[in-house]
């Protein structure tokens, strides 16, 4: 659950490596294995890009150990649906074995039905050895000699054989594991640097009767695993014998670089194209802003300051005319304060998350680390949400600061929690391991009410105690009438136009982010992400300033909400792109999975709206204060 929230890590960097890819800390301390040391393969969830519903490995009738033990899980792992447990696959370091029997299973109707459903939905089995996920090697489609890897292996496949026209279901019941190790030249110790699997489907035969302790297989010669009896069919009352091979291979890859296989980027060129495309947008906007600031504004300010008589001033047109109304508090000023506070909270969370990610603390080897960090940082950033919301609220001469604080603490989280709760109920109805347990739900509510809400109150108290922000010019008692606006200056049109460029700056990188979330890929190029997000930040600020200037020049002083919505409207394009991505790239078949996708993308778009809107608002706020403090007002 909650994987889509990972897009919120879009922000700031502490450093960029020359390759513009962040480095990572491997996440766990290295373990040295002597020859003969026991290696325990752990099993993770079953996952499918067609349904987006993870299941526990033992949901299917696989071989079970005598006692199933769950490994320690963090909050992020639970939210992602990870369930890491022990398995029957146990072997010894650097001791090769062939055709070792795991168990024999006789399928009842329910087990056969579950296997068939999971094969239909293209579920993959995920395993872990020494904190490395199992990888399935395959040739790349472009014909190059480099091997590419898929995460996990498929449960089985559909096909027909022996002249039959009917499609049948077959299971991968024989696994050929290969463990790559890096040996210390001075000692006999070795570290595991790779974990691959090649699955096979073999209809095993054995000498009757079946002996659990010493099974005698006739279909698994030591030099071949293919057998002569064809693949293993899945059906009611079928006997399935699960077997495995284990081989070891020395490798030159060092332990610190063992994740490179999983994080290998094959499309750097596209990311550079994305950045160049975004930079073009920024240069175009920066040119417009520079022209407005350097030429038009300085000329305006010089002219306004040279006016000698009141009559001349009355004949003047442009943004100076609305100086008596430009700082008039907007309608629903309290709600604006709430959304600004929430945006600051989001900004702080994204900033610190990105710093941690670039320092390598949130590498994929630290499963669930990214999600855990984001949830905890969101909670602690409540302090800044309360502070910024209260400062703005006091500037608007608001008096009910406690009510404003409560809204800041509850509006955004309550909407997100409601959507999350509904989606979780749907997942729970599907018996998926992605359903967040009651205990974890209680922990999330405790983090919200027990830590976040009090911190928002502390921030509000500190912000409200400070003296109010003074306006550069006085506000008239009677509001000025706004002249009729041209069609292109109407609020809806200018707001929708304002969101196009910020979205255009990030949409190429957005493709890779969505792919990592919904197609189970690792996304770890936070260097590129940092550059793209800084570009997004600048674009939001500049487009808002440009459109705000045009608005003030046409004597429309209702800029507060317009500034927020101009940059925030990029979230609408993000959601429209998510719809396009769903119909062109995903093969989701289940109705529940569709609800999951659009539910999470709605949360992501809402968060993006709050974040970009706040950036646009503060840029415009700075701009308006700057220009009106530069002219002499009688």
What is the topological layout?
Blueprint lengths: L37 E10 L27 H6 L4 E8 L4 E10 L2 H12 L3 E6 L2 E2 L1 E5 L7 E5 L1 E2 L1 E4 L8 E4 L2 E10 L6 E11 L38 E12 L9 H4 L4 H39 L3 H6 L17 H26 L10 H12 L1 H14 L5 H29 L8 H28 L25 H8 L1 H19 L7 H28 L6 H9 L1 H16 L5 H38 L6
Parallel strand pairs: 11-13
Antiparallel strand pairs: 1-2, 1-4, 3-13, 4-5, 4-8, 6-7, 9-10, 11-12
Helix pairs in contact: 4-12, 4-13, 6-7, 6-8, 6-9, 6-16, 7-10, 8-9, 8-10, 9-10, 9-16, 11-14, 12-13, 12-15, 13-14, 13-16, 14-16, 15-16
Main features:
single chain, elongated, disordered N terminus
Low-pLDDT stretches? 1-27, 223-227
Q: Structural class, judged by helices and strands?
A: alpha+beta
Distance between the termini: 60 Å
Largest sheet: 5 strands, antiparallel
Rg over alpha carbons: 30 Å
Mean pLDDT, to the nearest integer, reads 84
Shape: elongated
Number of strands: 13
The SSE string, one letter per element, is EHEEHEEEEEEEEEEHHHHHHHHHHHHHH
In terms of DSSP E residues, the strand content is 5-15%
> What percentage of residues falls in helices of 4 or more residues?
40-55%
Q: Helical element count?
A: 16
Task: Write structural notes for this entry.
This protein is of the alpha+beta class. The chain is 46% helix and 14% strand. The chain is built from 16 helices and 13 strands. Strands 1, 2, 4, 5 and 8 form a five-stranded antiparallel sheet that branches. Strands 3-13-11-12 form a four-stranded mixed sheet, with no helix packed on it. Strand 6 (135-139) and strand 7 (147-151) form a beta hairpin. Helix 14 crosses helix 16. The chain is elongated. 42% of the residues are buried. Residues 1-27 and 223-227 have low confidence and may be disordered.
